[in-house]
Write a sequence for this structure.
């Protein structure tokens, strides 16, 4: 329908005025200036040194590094929602250039990932071919918008010269460990030196020299920041790959294909991001980010203070983390996550005598019960397992642990409501204090002991309770006894805080536990069973020990494979494992290499997983700084110049980073982690990648659906009497996302063809505040087109094409015009600094309308400043008008206008005069008028005198310069 059909609102014909600003003229102007900018290198941001060094005067200016979040080159191309953030950063970058800054603003492509691989599977087209074609299309669309990018700095993550350094960073992380005492990463060689000298002990009573190579590798793997382990993963046999949690639906099926997803253990690469949990949390305070994003990161990291408690079992122990150690006397059973590695270890061959039937799940042996339950739990997602309303299920593993505070034997269960990803994967269950524990205890007839005195009148008889009671504002009861160490402890009568302190001291004194901090954050699973990703620079020897490739062998490029798709299996067969596409190229996988370790050539097998698509976007801000450096990640002087710490930016980082709020956690958290490792190792001076973050809203569009719920083409929908019809059938309308699949996408190409890029830029910036979502309405675009037409008419004669401005001295310009000009300059400057682009455009419009209504030629100096105000927002028409005004230089690097304060202050303000609270008069007075003078003026006003009618005055309240309130006698 017309809302998404540019042809329905085409501009008025320009036949009557040969030099009127039209879409055709806009297209010619825009193409010409885009060519000029490219040829002249207008947006080249010089570095202080290196191959991108340039104008030393520009380098000497304050710098600004402005970035967009990495775009993925989709085959569908851009719709008008995509450029919102790109236009915003471009406006900011242009404004910063005009206010005296050396601005780095460029754009690359995050080009590895699943969509290109899926396309390759479907069509047989190599992912690189389709990805590069998509990038070229996207570059063309972006260029048409007039974005001022330094194109010398652009790249794609799929470029081998780029992912060489992604692989190099992986090796830095692999060859590092986190020193908890120094609170930073250190080279693994320093750890090895500690083992060799005996300063740090190894397993048992053996020395480092007595360990085999494989044993040493295992020891180091427990410290490395990048390590391989058997990790629980979401395995989808129907797709033949492991899925991220975000790719699994709430009912435990794959988002793509709707196949069953199972919990499985696979050997995977991980990043030890948990080592940085405290720093990732603490350093948020110094970042200029939206509070909502900071909160999401804090919640994801999930710092909790509590205690580690060891429950003895069969000569060993089960360790739990609890935030409420004060409730230990109420722990009447334990639960292990189905994936917990200790489940098999403590599961006996037979049920203990007296085991209740309800605890066995109907199985003859504990091993059978546990195996069956694990298979059942593997088919459920974490969300489904954690659902509050679901029935609690589980089985007894056939073993008992000992509660360390009172020596009681407590049964150990396996239950799916406990996740391996939180805490230790084991809990002490206190059914009186936790609702899920209470429901489980009642289902399995387990004791429920009240240990926190209820304050809501329910009493201490738990058999009458409808729900658990877990208040922090209460006293501890029924909590005294002698622990397995022989030392007694009592918490009775203590408030919760004091009880936590006492029991923690007791745990530490008796060796039964310790106060500790736990995090919700888990180590980052870094492996993908894909083809289209960065190969790991890792090889395995004949013993299975991992060896890093030397830097001289990087980049390790992706090999060619005949089949890009992973091997798929029976969707219901959980007992299968992935077969990666890379594993099919035996010539690439099996190699003989000399790794430079003094052992000469040896046979190795390459890692056949690839890195996740997050890898390339973890450090791309650094590549923008020094994009052609083949010798090092980034030159230190260049990195210090653009990203180093300085006043107001204690951790350094990009000055402005704009993108969607959907990346609140994963991308931003991963990038922060990599930055901190590189900072610790001395490769960069910035401990944070992005100092200021701005989340733009979303451009939405109406989605029309037929009776089947299927989206129909929005452009073909008709509106009749408030209802909507497609091909004669009534359809529903709902505001939602814009996209090809929803058949409501409008491309920027369409709008540029009908109105020009400057109009599109203005419309997207004028739609509303940048950080809120807004609906697209093609019919409204014409309003910004007409603004540009009026601007053009104020400078150029539409009939002759000649300048129509007047050469008038500043002192001869009328006062109203000067006030309108300087108030606009002041307001637009403040709005652009604050990224309030919609109000900046409103102020430009107000000034332009004033000049139009004033009649007569616009004074040249006023026209020039008007053009400079418009330049960041509509750069093509600004360049054209600037050149017509007689300037040889580009408007891009001109100084932004500065307001004269004398004209910014209103000459008069309106004062409201009230009698008994009702307005009786309005006075135009000077802003600086005194209370006494204002009172005299109000009382002398003839309307006020008439309204008083000779009555006396009891009181006059004056709030100069805007209010006088008269209270009659």
């Amino acid at each position: 329908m017309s809302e998404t059909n540019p042809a329905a609102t085409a501009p008025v014909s320009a036949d009557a005025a040969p030099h009127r600003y039209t879409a055709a003229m806009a297209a010619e102007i825009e193409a010409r200036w885009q060519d000029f900018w490219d040829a002249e290198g207008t947006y080249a941001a010089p570095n202080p040194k290196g191959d991108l060094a340039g104008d030393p005067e520009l380098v000497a200016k304050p710098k600004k590094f402005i970035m967009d979040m990495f775009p993925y080159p989709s085959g569908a191309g851009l719709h008008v929602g995509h450029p919102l953030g790109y236009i915003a950063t471009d406006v900011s970058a242009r404004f910063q250039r005009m206010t005296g800054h050396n601005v780095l603003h460029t754009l690359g492509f995050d080009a590895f990932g699943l969509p290109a691989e899926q396309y390759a599977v479907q069509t047989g087209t190599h992912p690189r071919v389709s990805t590069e074609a998509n990038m070229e299309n996207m570059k063309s669309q972006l260029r048409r918008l007039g974005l001022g990018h330094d194109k010398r700095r652009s790249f794609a993550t799929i470029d081998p010269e780029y992912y060489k350094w992604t692989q190099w960073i992986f090796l830095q992380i692999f060859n590092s460990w986190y020193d908890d005492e120094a609170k930073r990463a250190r080279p693994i060689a320093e750890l090895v030196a500690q083992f060799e000298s005996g300063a740090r002990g190894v397993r048992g009573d053996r020395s480092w020299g007595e360990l085999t190579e494989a044993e040493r590798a295992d020891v180091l793997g427990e410290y490395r920041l990048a390590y391989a382990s058997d990790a629980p993963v979401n395995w989808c046999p129907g797709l033949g790959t492991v899925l991220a949690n975000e790719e699994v639906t709430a009912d435990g099926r794959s988002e793509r294909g709707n196949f069953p997803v199972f919990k499985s253990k696979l050997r995977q690469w991980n990043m030890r991001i948990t080592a940085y949990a405290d720093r990732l949390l603490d350093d948020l305070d110094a970042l200029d980010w939206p509070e909502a994003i900071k909160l999401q990161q804090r919640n994801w990291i999930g710092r909790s203070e509590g205690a580690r408690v060891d429950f003895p079992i069969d000569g060993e122990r089960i360790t739990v983390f609890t935030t409420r150690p004060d409730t230990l006397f109420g722990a009447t059973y334990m639960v292990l996550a189905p994936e917990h590695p200790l489940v098999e270890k403590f599961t006996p061959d037979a049920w203990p005598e007296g085991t209740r039937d309800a605890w066995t799940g109907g199985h003859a042996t504990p091993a059978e019960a546990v195996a069956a339950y694990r298979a059942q739990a593997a088919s459920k997602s974490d969300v489904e397992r954690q659902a509050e309303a679901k029935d609690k299920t589980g089985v007894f593993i056939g073993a008992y642990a000992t509660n360390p505070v009172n020596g009681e034997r407590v049964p150990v269960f396996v239950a799916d409501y406990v996740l391996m990803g939180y805490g230790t994967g084991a809990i002490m269950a206190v059914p009186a204090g936790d609702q899920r524990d209470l429901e489980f205890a009642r289902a399995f007839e387990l004791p429920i002991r009240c240990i926190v005195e209820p304050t809501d009148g329910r009493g201490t008889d738990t058999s009458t309770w409808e729900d658990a009671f877990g208040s922090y504002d209460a006293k501890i009861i029924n909590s005294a006894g002698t622990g397995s160490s022989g030392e007694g402890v009592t918490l009775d009568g203590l408030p919760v805080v004091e009880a936590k302190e006492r029991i923690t001291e007791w745990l530490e004194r008796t060796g039964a536990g310790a106060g500790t901090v736990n995090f919700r954050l888990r180590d980052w699973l870094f492996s993908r069973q894909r083809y289209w990703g960065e190969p790991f620079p890792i090889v395995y020897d004949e013993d299975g020990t991992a060896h890093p490739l030397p830097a001289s062998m990087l980049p390790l490029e992706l090999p060619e494979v005949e089949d890009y798709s992973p091997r798929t299996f029976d969707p219901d067969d959980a007992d299968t494992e992935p077969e990666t596409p890379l594993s099919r190229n035996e010539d690439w996988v099996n190699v003989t290499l000399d790794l430079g370790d003094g052992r000469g050539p040896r046979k190795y097998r390459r890692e056949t997983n690839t890195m996740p698509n997050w890898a390339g976007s973890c450090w791309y801000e650094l590549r923008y700084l020094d994009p052609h450096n083949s010798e090092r990640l980034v030159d230190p002087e260049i990195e210090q110049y653009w990203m180093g710490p300085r006043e107001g930016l204690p951790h350094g980082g990009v000055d402005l980073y704009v993108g969607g709020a959907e990346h609140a956690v994963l991308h931003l958290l991963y990038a922060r982690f990599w930055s901190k490792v590189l900072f610790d190792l001395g490769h960069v001076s910035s401990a944070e990648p992005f100092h200021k973050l701005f989340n733009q809203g979303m451009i939405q569009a109406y989605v029309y659906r037929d009776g089947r719920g299927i989206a129909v083409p929005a452009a073909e929908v008709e509106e009749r009497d408030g209802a909507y019809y497609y091909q004669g059938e009534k359809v529903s309308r709902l505001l939602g996302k814009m996209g090809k699949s929803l058949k409501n996408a409008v491309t920027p190409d369409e709008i540029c063809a009908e109105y020009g890029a400057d109009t599109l830029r203005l419309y997207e910036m004028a739609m509303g505040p940048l950080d809120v979502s807004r609906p697209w309405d093609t019919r409204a675009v014409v309003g910004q087109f007409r603004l540009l037409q009026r601007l053009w008419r104020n400078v150029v004669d539409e009939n002759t094409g000649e300048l129509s401005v007047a050469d008038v001295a500043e002192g001869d310009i009328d006062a109203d015009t000067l006030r309108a000009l300087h108030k606009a300059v002041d307001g637009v400057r403040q709005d652009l600094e604050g990224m309030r682009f919609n109000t900046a455009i409103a102020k430009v419009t107000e000034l332009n309308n004033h000049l139009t209504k004033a009649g007569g030629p616009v004074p040249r100096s006023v026209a020039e400043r008007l053009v400079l105000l418009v330049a960041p927002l509509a750069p093509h028409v600004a360049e054209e008008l600037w050149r017509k005004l007689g300037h040889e230089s580009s408007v891009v690097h001109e100084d932004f206008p500065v307001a004269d304060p004398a004209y910014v202050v209103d000459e008069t303000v309106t004062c409201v005069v009230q009698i008994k609270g009702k307005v009786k008069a309005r006075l135009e007075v000077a802003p600086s008028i005194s209370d006494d003078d204002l009172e005299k003026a109000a009382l002398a006003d003839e309307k006020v005198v008439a309204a008083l009618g000779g009555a006396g005055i009891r009181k006059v309240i004056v709030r100069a310069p805007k209010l006088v309130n008269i209270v009659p006698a």
